[in-house]
């Protein structure tokens, strides 16, 4: 099922972070959302995850139980007393709920997911003892278990080494081959050019959406930067399109 963003506006206290965005993301797309700092990328991803209220317009084709969301590491409280295994098991939350214990198959799925991301042997480690890259692998394992058709990744490769980036890219490639929709926020334009077939360039409004090579042009990137620099943080919510 495709995802449709219809004239979408997202705002904090009426200050727009995403402005009148219209786009269709086809099922099975691997889409990068790029743009300058403050362009509204994380806000848009949060709205797709159902975590941010919509001020105007709509998002169609998504509901919370079809989405797996990997937030920025900075948003996580890794001091919580959890082991790697316990964090990964949380990917089965929708199936397990509060009281149910793991079946043999579910236990195996957790062990397999931990192996896929290369964390065998770390099952009983507390998450606050993991490096940034190991924690990111752990979070990818949780997303693997969530097993959803739409996967939202917010800066998944921030501050991780080349080996981890390569391994986790293989995980994403498998999702893409399985016709899952992968939407990732990133600042790494080299990565996007190399791997992501589709790009949405955002600077609060949409600068361009389409094939990566058509969108990541010098002209579009310059326009995004100029719009971002010219933006007045105190501007009120635009009433364009309002009745
Ligand atoms: N919780 C919030 N309350 C008020 N304003 C917010 C909040 N979160 C984000 N904003 C503002 O919304 C705008 C868009 O922020 P957002 O985090 O979506 O941008 P971004 O493109 O992801 O930025 P970056 O590349 O720096 O991570 C920014 O001006 C930011 O200050």
Structure description:
By secondary structure, the chain is an alpha/beta fold. Helix content is about 35%, strand content about 25%. It has nine helices and nine strands. It has helices at about 40-50, 85-90, 95, 105-115, 130-145, 160-175, 190-195, 210-215, 220-230; strands spanning about 5-10, 15-25, 30-35, 55-60, 65-70, 150-155, 180-185, 200-205, 205-210. The strands form two sheets. The protein has a six-stranded mixed β-sheet with strand order 5-6-7-3-8-9, with helices on both faces. A three-stranded antiparallel β-sheet has the order 2-1-4, with helices on one face. The longest helix is centred in the C-terminal third of the chain and has 16 residues, at about 160-175. The protein starts with a strand and ends in a 13-residue tail after the last helix. Adenosine-5'-triphosphate binds near residues 12, 17, 39 and 40.
Topology record:
Elements: E1 3-12, E2 15-25, E3 30-34, H1 41-48, E4 56-60, E5 67-70, H2 84-89, H3 93-96, H4 104-116, H5 132-146, E6 150-154, H6 162-177, E7 181-185, H7 189-195, E8 198-203, E9 205-211, H8 212-215, H9 218-230
Parallel strand pairs: 3-7, 3-8, 5-6, 6-7
Antiparallel strand pairs: 1-2, 1-4, 8-9
Helix pairs in contact: 4-5
The protein binds adenosine-5'-triphosphate (ATP).
Family: Belongs to the ABC transporter superfamily.
GO molecular function: ATP binding; ATP hydrolysis activity
Domain ABC transporter: 3-229
């Amino acid at each position: 099922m495709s995802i449709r963003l219809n004239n979408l506006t997202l705002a904090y206290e009426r200050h727009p972070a995403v402005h009148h965005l219209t786009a269709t993301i086809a099922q099975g797309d691997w889409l990068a959302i790029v743009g300058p700092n403050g362009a509204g990328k994380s806000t848009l991803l949060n709205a797709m995850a159902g975590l941010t209220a919509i001020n105007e317009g709509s998002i169609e084709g998504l509901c919370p139980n079809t989405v797996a969301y990997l937030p920025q590491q900075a948003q996580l409280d890794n001091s919580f007393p959890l082991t790697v295994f316990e964090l990964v098991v949380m990917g089965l939350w929708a199936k397990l709920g509060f009281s149910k214990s793991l079946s043999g198959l579910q236990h195996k799925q957790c062990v397999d997911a931990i192996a896929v991301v290369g964390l065998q042997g770390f099952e009983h480690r507390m998450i606050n003892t993991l490096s940034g890259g190991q924690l990111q692998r752990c979070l990818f394992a949780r997303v693997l278990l969530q097993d959803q058709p739409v996967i939202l990744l917010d800066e998944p490769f921030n501050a991780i080494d080349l080996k981890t980036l390569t391994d986790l890219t293989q995980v994403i490639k498998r999702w893409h081959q399985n016709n899952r929709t992968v939407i990732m926020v990133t600042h790494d334009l080299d990565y996007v050019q190399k791997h992501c077939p589709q790009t949405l360039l955002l600077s609060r409004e949409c600068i361009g959406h389409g094939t990566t090579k058509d969108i990541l042009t010098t002209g579009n990137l310059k326009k995004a930067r100029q719009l971002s620099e010219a933006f007045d943080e105190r501007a009120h919510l635009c009433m364009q399109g309002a009745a």
